[in-house]
Design a protein that fits this description.
With 45 residues, the chain is mainly alpha-helical. It has one helix and no strands. It is rod-shaped, with a radius of gyration of 19 Å.
Length: 45
C-alpha cells in the first residue's frame, strides 16, 4: 500500500467519522433532553 493511496482512503474515512460523530452528538443531545423531560415529569407528579 502506497502512502498516496492511504492518504486518500484516510480522508474518506475522516469524513465518515465526522458524520458519524455529528450523528452521535445529536442522538446524545436528544437523549439528554428526554432524560430532563422525564425528570421534570417525576418532580411534577
Amino acid at each position: 500500500m502506497t502512502k498516496g493511496q492511504g492518504f486518500g482512503f484516510g480522508l474518506g474515512k475522516m469524513k465518515e467519522l465526522a458524520e458519524a460523530f455529528k450523528k452521535a452528538q445529536e442522538v446524545q443531545q436528544g437523549a439528554k433532553q428526554l432524560q430532563e423531560e422525564l425528570e421534570q415529569m417525576e418532580i411534577e407528579g
